[in-house]
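Notebook entry, structure prediction.
Reason for the run: the old model in the group folder had no record of what sequence produced it. Starting over properly, with the input documented here first.
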Amino acid sequence: MRYFLTPPLLVLFCLIQLSSCKKSQEASSEIDMKMDSEKMSNAPQMSKKVELSEKDIAEEEMNFKGQTEDIDESSGQDIGTPLDPITDLSKTRLLEYTVTLNFRCKNIPESRKKLIQIIKKSSFIKSSNTSSGEKYSSMNSEIHIPVDRLYETLLEMDKLGKLESESIHSNDHTEENEWQKIKLSREQLRSNRRSKAVSSGKAENWTWKDREELLERSEEGMDQAQFESWKIKDRVSWAKIHVVLNGEGAPATIEFPNYRTVFFSSINFLLDMTAYLVWLLPLSVLGFFIYFVFKKIRGY
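New structure, fully documented this time:
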């Protein structure tokens, strides 16, 4: 009886095993299908995130450009042009003018008054030095004048006297200004990124001191770049003029010597000679004594 029941039991056991294997395969296939569907559903979301990040970058660049334009408008003009260009052709360049003028004047006080009247209109004196004597007078002045009045002022200064020499030098700051604009834009962009990184809170190891130092470095770099740009604008807005006024020398005259002083000088000279003879007398006596002693020794 036992031998008849054994084969059916084996067949039943095999069928159970096969059914369990099929169920496990179906479950795994269902899991794979779910994972694939999840990936397909997440793909648009990932693409949306990428698109959003690109949009954020584009918006940041647009905001940055707007900030730079606001800065230029707040300064009253474009950073790349001087406040008052000397001519229309010089609007594209940032030129710092330095002028040196030497005049020969017949009357220094009168030329000085004319120079002060010219300076009084629209310029200021940085330094001035005037010397006056019986034979020679001169005046050295360094003035700063708006660059748009440079040509007019040079023509007005022809009234000071006879022009002996003139030197005009211009220093081009256009390239330096462009570099400062690039530095300023980089510092502003870097500051925005640092502020976002600090406010995001992702850097859990940062302390408040580290965050403040990071933002302080960004602000100092931006302030330095803005200050350098301002210095360039200030240099090109004012022309430096160094004016030298030389008076004419006194006319040639016949100068008679003071015979009284000559007489006293001759008496003083004779007295000095007697003093020298008094000093030489002991030395001469000593010399003659040595000479006679030496001659006497040689005679023996």
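Summary: The radius of gyration is 49 Å.
The old model has been moved to the deprecated folder.
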